[in-house]
Amino acid sequence: MSNINLDxxxxxxxxxxxxxxxYSDVVKENHSRLRGKSGVGCEFTDWIDYPFCYDKQExxxxxxxxxxxxxxxxxxxxxxxxxSYLGARAVIxxxxxxxxxxxxxxxxxxxGNNISSKYIKQLIEEVKDKxxxxxxxxxxxxxxxxxxxxxxxxxxxxxxxxxEEAKNRIFVTTDKEKGVLxxxxxxxxxxxxxxxxxxxxxxxxxxxxxxxxxxxxGINIDELIKGAQDMANILNxxxxxxxxxxxxxxxxNILYNNGKKIEIMANYDSSLKYFTKWCTQLFNESEGKEGKxxxxxxxxNTTDLHSIGQYIQQSERIIFETVxxxxxxxxxxxxxxxxxxxxxxxxxxxxxDYINKKAMEGTxxxxxxxxxxxxxxxxxxxxxxxxGQLVYYFQTVAAMSGYILGINPFNQPGVEDYKxxxxxxxxxxxx
Length: 431
Ligand code: PA5
Hints:
This protein is α/β, with parallel strands linked by helices. It has helices spanning 17-21, 24-35, 50-53, 56-72, 86-95, 117-127, 144-169, 180-188, 208-216, 221-234, 244-257, 273-287, 309-314, 352-369, 384-405, 413-425, and strands at 5-7, 75-79, 107-111, 132-137, 170-174, 191-194, 262-267, 295-300, 319-326, 374-379. Strands 1-10-9-7-8 form a five-stranded mixed sheet, sandwiched between helices. Strands 3-2-4-5-6 form a five-stranded parallel sheet, with helices on both faces. The relative contact order is 0.16.
């Protein structure tokens, strides 16, 4: 089976291969900055080699903790927000059944990604009769949403199990030595996992941040890492026309400079909804700074063809679109003959996936005709190996695209501003 790949034929109606080729030298320079760790923000580029040089002991500990959790918990609540949440959920939702959302005995729930009291109260109710573990994830250890959820669920665990037993059921993923969360973990004796220093949240899916919840959901993390390793090797190529992540990054920048200020990522498979949300964070938080950056948004089709589709087709011509196309149908469903006279005989004998793909192809043609350039990312099948490839692929696109744009794709000063303001408004003194 082929690797994930980019089809940009529908962009060449708007820009030329010559426009793209002009970026060859810029890409070479930025490739050398990225891989040589000499560009802006290089202190946060350890994700580049991480699939090869991850901490093997930590990896074994993830597997041991997974076994314990799967044997002792019907449910695990993952507490975290932004990069400490979205990557794990993206991978879990892509690779687990639509309704149970797990391949193991342990169902995954999430908290700390909002401050909704309805959500928290109903989650407490939902899990009250289940055996529980929690995994709290925060690099800084001070993010308010996560800290509030931890306070609530630590207390709940101690009331449910007593302090000693709760200790075995609470897993902490944070900085290796500093921060409030690390101090609590040390004092209480919780099992801890490390967020590597040189990797920021949205690039941390393939570290303990993502891997513990993903593994607990019964997903094969060896295959995930193998996919990322192979993609890292494929993308270690400075030649623009042989590196599809770099091509995608260059095309984004050319379109942006031509007035296409919005990128809309479309999925036609609801399993990828959280993957597109993770991409939304990856691109917006990496690029949206210094008065620049494409606004990255998503649609879930065909659902959103009946809501946002009108805007894409006929609004201001400032949009381009990137479609995630899953090539192989893993759950074929054939439309059978029926006696109902509904006028749908023409789809009898066809699979739902066939019809979905025709909807996708028809929409792409309409959008391109309507002056919306279209990129298509082909994903051979929704399996661990290809999701590993996909994660690494998009991280590389975001990094290269940010470098071409001339910003630091590895910081998030705007997010820090909001955090500081919220703390001040809440009366925290040492902000
Ligand atoms: O990508 C990032 O760095 C951010 O989205 C963070 O992951 C997010 O703000 C949560 O931070 P922390 O892990 O420190 O709780």
